[in-house]
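pipeline: protein-struct stage 2 | run 1193 | Monooxygenase, FAD-binding
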Amino acid sequence: MFGPEKDYLRHLGVYFALADHPDEARSEGANSIYNVPSRMAGLFRYNGKAVAVFQFRSEPIDYDHHDLDAQKKILIDAFAGHRSWRIPELLDAALADPAFFFTSASQIHLPSWHRGRVALVGDAGYCPAFLSGRGTSLALTGARFLAEELQRCGNDHTAAFARYEARQRPYVTFAQDRVYSGRDRMLPTTWDAIAARNKALQATGPGAP
């Protein structure tokens, strides 16, 4: 109805992967991440599970979205030569996981979120990408504004959709425009930038003056 996804997809220069790490599921410890330039590996624990998390910067990659082995190879190649911290262990977990997840960090930019009697809400219409940290907020405000305008406009869904878009669009623009600062915090491109990011975080953490 709205056309091919590729017409509205905006790649943000980042890929993201998740893998189950069952060997760590019962262990204690804080969630942790480790950066090398333009890359991040981490380990997150929740509800008795442990997940290896990866991010890396890259230009768009052409790959088969149904071929897990090809996606795992992309991840391995992205971290080639990086053997510090627990990176090799986490990559082994990714290779072993039959439910490995791999995707790009991308946004959806549509000129309009409605066609006929169909209106889009949340990621379907204006995905800001996980780097923004605002996807859930946009989905909630969008659902609220749409419901309010449908109630206000009665049977005139065309007017309701237009009013919904007018109210929601500023929130979407704000969230999508700020995604690059989130990317730069998560994936600094140099060792100096990593050190500066860490120093800034320490200055605002517990015990900071």
